[in-house]
Design a protein that fits this description.
The protein is of the alpha/beta class and about 120 residues long. It is about 45% helix and about 35% strand. Helix 1 packs parallel to helix 2.
């Protein structure tokens, strides 16, 4: 079964936002890393928001991709926020320990005010 996804970037209040729609799996790995790489190359912001409002599913490959991005942002002294996560995704992030390294907010506007 092929998972469906779309990963794009946006800028909100001079903060780059990665928007994940659909499934974050190994099929999405290249797209997620590519969008993050474009953000790194084009913006000097040490803040990053990843929006999960339309994310339906994440597996271990998707978690590994997030860890890669989190490590890179943290190495630069930056801050990363996750927004729009379902209760299920929040639970997954807690179980794997990712929530210890990111800030979780309900919306982009909430994250922008806080970071």
């Amino acid at each position: 079964m092929k998972y469906q996804h779309k990963i794009i970037s946006d800028m909100i209040s001079n903060i780059p936002v990665i928007i994940i729609e659909g499934d974050l799996t190994s099929d999405a790995d290249g797209d997620a890393k590519g969008v993050y790489s474009e953000i790194k190359d084009n913006y000097s912001s040490q803040k990053l928001i990843i929006n999960f409002e339309n994310t339906k599913y994440i597996n271990s490959s998707g978690i590994a991709t997030l860890i890669h991005i989190i490590q890179d942002v943290n190495e630069k002294g930056g801050v990363i926020a996750f927004v729009g996560m379902s209760d299920h995704l929040k639970k997954v992030m807690n179980i794997v320990g990712i929530s210890d390294f990111v800030r979780i907010y309900n919306s982009n506007s909430e994250a922008i005010k806080a970071i």
